[in-house]
Amino acid sequence: MQISRNKMLFGFFALSFGFFLETGICAAVQSELRITTIKQEPYTISKGTQLEGFCMDLLSEVAKKLGFKYRVQLVKDGSYGRQDDNGNWNGMIGEVVRGEADLAIAPLTLTAAREKAVGMTKPFMQTGISILLRKDISEGSGFFDFLTPFTAETWVGILIAYLGTAASIFIVARISPCEWSQPQSEQNRFSFLHSLWYTAGALTLQGAGPHPKALSGRVICCSWWFFTVVLLACYFSNLSSSKSSESAQLMVKGFEDLANQDTIEYGCLAGSSTLAFFKNSNNPVYRRIYEHMERTKSFVSSMDEGVRRAKEGNFAFIGESVSLDLAVARHCELVRAHEVVGMRGYSIAAAFGSPLIKNLSVAILQLSEAGELAYLRSKWWASSCIADRTKSSPVQLHSLKGMFLVLSLGLGLGALLAVLELTSKSRRGAVEQRKSCCTVLTEELSLRLRTSNASRPQENVDKDKEKA
């Protein structure tokens, strides 16, 4: 009995020693993790004998948080990871599955197939599938492209300014005695229709007579001429910029446009998750795209080859939107379509069931919440083409507020001068007729602002003379 008890104690101590020994060995192994990656700008690029890039900076930040050392090695076959017909994995996923690497850090798309083979962390970057083309593959001009230099609000403001100026000229031409001295017998030259015509003529720099004779009318016209000169300068300048960059407006705006044409060849990276997305999709448009790529064998072997073929023209490269954004930032002759489908994320891969997955996911979330991931994105995706993209943006209404202010002041000043001119005449008439100035001014305004029958007082005077 005592012997069996001693054997049990000995066995317990042996198992405990073995457990702690194994834990120590694992800890020793995990103290320097083997990291596999792949060269792809800007995630991992060579600088002399060292590697740098977005993934290397991310790995450094994660290692600081979790306190581990690491050794980076490039994947031997240069692949991300694809499962063959026998169920075997190649690329970085294969190295992690076979135990040749502890972690795979690269733009590895989180997919269901990969999740079954290895452990994947929370995504450190969101992406989708889009289209990369050369800018000179552009759409035909629309019927109303001439309106694009200004926004809709700006056009509404210009229309209001046009109608307001025409109305001001019409009113001032009736009020000012220098413009319309004898309303009883003379016909006013500036009807409302003629005021609209005159203002439109000035807007097109053509001119339409007769011109105002009164100082008040001339002040309004000068204000409108200044407004039109600056306005036309802004319009033609922005129109020229929009025409020079109209090639950025793609004929292929999305995947349906791509599938419905046969002029532009298109393809994606062979063996990529992008290809798997189209292959496994039940969407008829996506199925047509996949069948076309399979039929024409228009796949590319690398991201660089896809970008190169897109730069050569007549080829649309389908790939991850984040990678395509980088290509656009590096090559200003390229542009990415606006449509993005199949949103997914890039994750770090580890062995299936590894305890590192949880800690890595927490570290990635902490970096995201602290803004570190956004900083790394802006650092490695910096573009020299951003300034060119904003060159042809439509002119906003607030950008022309100075012009509208000058025009408003000119209209107000012209109206004030017209009232002063009429007041001066009314004062002289009040002295002659021995009436108050206000009475004469009221009669003059009433007479001049009538839209019709302005000569009725004169007709009444003639009838009185006949009766006498």
From TrEMBL:
Residues 42-98 form the Ionotropic glutamate receptor L-glutamate and glycine-binding domain. It is found in: Postsynaptic cell membrane. InterPro entries: Glu/Gly-bd, Iono_Glu_rcpt_met, Ionotropic_Glu_rcpt, Iontro_rcpt_C. Residues 1-28 form the signal peptide. Residues 32-383 form the Ionotropic glutamate receptor C-terminal domain. The keyword Cytoplasm does not apply. GO terms for molecular function: ligand-gated monoatomic ion channel activity; signaling receptor activity. Coiled coil: none annotated. Disulfide bonds join 332-385. The record marks 279 as: Interaction with the cone snail toxin Con-ikot-ikot. Keywords: Cell membrane, Disulfide bond, Glycoprotein, Ion channel, Ion transport, Ligand-gated ion channel, Membrane, Postsynaptic cell membrane, Receptor, Signal, Synapse, Transmembrane, Transmembrane helix, Transport. It is a multi-pass membrane protein. Belongs to the glutamate-gated ion channel (TC 1.A.10.1) family. Receptor for glutamate that functions as a ligand-gated ion channel in the central nervous system and plays an important role in excitatory synaptic transmission. L-glutamate acts as an excitatory neurotransmitter at many synapses in the central nervous system. This is Glutamate receptor.
